[in-house]
Amino acid sequence: MMEQMPLIATKVLIVDDYEENIHSLQNLLSQDGQEISFFHATSGNDALKIAFREDLALIFLDVQMPGMDGYEVAAILKQKKSTQNIPVIFVTALNQESKYVAEGYSKGAIDYLFKPLDPIITRAKFNSFINIYLQQKRLEDAYKDLELIVKERTSDLQAKNEELLQAKNELMVNNKKLVQLNNELDQFVYIASHDLKLPLANLEGLLEAVMDDLEHFPKQSEDIFNMMDNSVVQMKNTINGLIDIIQGQQEEEAQLEFIDCQQVLDEIKISIFNLIQDSAAEIRVQIEDCNKFRFNKVAFKSVLYNLITNAIKYRHSERKPEIEIIFTECDESFSLRVLDNGVGMTEQERMKLFKLFSRLEYASNTEGTGMGLYNLRNLLARYQATIDVHSEKGKGSEFVVVFEKPKSDLLVKNM
Question: I need a surface site. Which of 188, 216, 248, 409 has the fewest CB within 10 A?
Fold first, then answer.
């Protein structure tokens, strides 16, 4: 069912110096279904008192009254702010000469009724002005409701903003604490790693001395010494990897320079000559003119070194390693691709490849700490470079590094 509109109190003032005229007009205007309160005044003064006191919807005002006539009453009503917008209909027995009508409108009347009153015209005009009044009241009520809603929403928004500001302040405090804790943790790891390097070096030296002094010892003892030596190497690599992580996080800027990619690759081949020879690895190179390539040379060498040595370490047991290095220039970047025919990875293994201390399950016999690719990705991120990998189990992997062309010679790490 349609919701019924609430009733609005409607007050109408009838002003005439003859009581019978007032009652006659009220009877003519009264209709079933309308909630209208009629007020009566037989003089101008009484009319003004009622108009100043009540919220009137309409005034029927007789023009000819003793003392203060209708024109004077209308003029006073128009001077007062609280009554100047009340519609006034003059009721008069005067003729309809234009001079009388013009005077009435000049005093603020909105319409005229001439005696004897025509019932149809009188009711039609009355209903029109009452409907206008009711519409105005509903608009005023709707505006008040809207103001209330806006006020409530504004209050809610202010409360939410205060909560947000408080949460922001708490977040800043917690972030500050977190940065402090991270710095303290980095400092602890760095100090602990350095403190461990000396006793580890002593242990490595003692192992070498024991193995040199014992010219002949059982096969079982030799295996044990070899395992101890491998463990020492693993500990050294782990400690150095942790130190590299801390140093990489603390380094704030790095100088760029033009790099001869082929020269860097030749230097790496010399440094891992034994690894290449022992594995019979074949390395094929496709390097376009990279005279415009600018990067940090040490960082670029580290990227190539890690990717090449990993390709050899994780080679397939049934075939010799084949590695293809492709370096190309694009519009906004340079691209380095390193492809191998090694053991490859499953999608699950690929997803965790760049996580700290993550190593392939079947690579436990290879030297590695699970920090190399983690450090490599963080190193590249400092230079707005990215690394990704595509791989297929049993067939090999392809590592893709994208170097964005820098806009300045100095890149500063985002803190």
Answer: 216
* pLDDT tens per residue, range 244-273: 555 555 554 557 788 888 888 988 888 888
Question: And the tokens for 116?
Answer: 């004897």
CATH label, 253-412, candidates 3.40.50.300, 3.40.630.20, 3.10.310.30, 3.30.565.10 = 3.30.565.10
Whole-structure pTM value: 0.44
Cα-based angle 175, 178, 180 (whole degrees, multiple of 5): 110
CATH 1.10.287 assigned to 147-250 = yes
* Residue 368 confidence (pLDDT) above 80: no
